[in-house]
Input
Amino acid sequence: MSIDRPVPRGGVTRIAPYVPGKGGDSGGKVFKLSSNETPLGASPDAIAAFVAAGAHLELYPDGSSRALRDAIGQRYGLDPARIVCGAGSDELLNLLAHAYLGPGDEAIFTEHGFLVYKIATLAAGGEPVVVPEKDLTADVDAILAAVSEKTRIVFIANPNNPTGTYLPIGEIKRLHEGLPRRVLLVLDAAYAEYVRRNDYESGIELVASYPNVVMTRTFSKIYGLASLRIGWAYCPEGVADALNRIRGPFNLSGPAIAAGAAAIADEAFVQSSAEHNSRWLEWLTRELEALGLKVTPSVGNFLLVHFPSDAGKTAADADAALVASGIYLRRLESYGLPGALRLSVGTEEANRAVVDTLTVFLGKA
Ligand SMILES: *Cc1c(COP(=O)(O)O)cnc(C)c1O
Output
């Protein structure tokens, strides 16, 4: 039988399209707490830089994102030559998969790991290897046990989305020590700025010390620039070289480069955003537990809230009640967690609206 139309190769048709968090498009007041966006907007400096960049939209941007890499390098004391910027860290995760995975090569990630790892792996023609977690937390022994001759990448979000759990740096080091040196360890630290734990590190030192560790970061979360699509990776020399060969020559827009550079310099803004988050993350955890709900302890800007399986009280029922009040959380069927909803920390008004709505929903008013 002849094929009468173009057919995408192997893994492409195995990709389940990414479903973004919902927000309402109805007229009324809506609280979008479904995508881990910050409720505090972006730094005024970043917005001013973005607006100023609007004066020269006719020009191609600097293809090396130099100003942004310099600003990141200055903020963290890193060599800008080893920083690669991307259109969101999503692009960088995909580029890493395309650079290091060929047909049949395996990429390992955990049971409730970030969905982009699977998409990137399949899109590159690689084979996803999903390993179990322990208490909704990545399990280093399970990851190491899954390593085979074909393993090329281990993706790990630390902290992880959607669980909110993390691995202490000691566990990350143990994972790295157990991996063959041909395996690239990708540390996705999208929520690093929110974490307040003495035993947490984003992985900068590991990247500095080894040729097989890369750390990705994003401007989409605490910096409040999700719409601009800005991510960065701190890389060993060889990885930076590979990413720079395969990325688009102008993969960040001029306004994104300008706004990102201004955002990272405004440390006071990041500090106050982190304080808002800590305060309301604790408050939400306490209030939801007081309602009898199980909440997975989180170090990010979101919470995994577990609902009972009793008819009328499930996560799907709670979601319906919240949506009826204009409150959007993230359903987690696609993450294999149908009994839970993910709640992003919002403004005080939004956080109180969530608790009030769930109080009524659970009949505790
Ligand atoms: C939100 C998020 C990102 C960021 O993606 P961008 O493409 O930079 O917006 C990366 N990793 C994880 C685990 C996330 O939750």
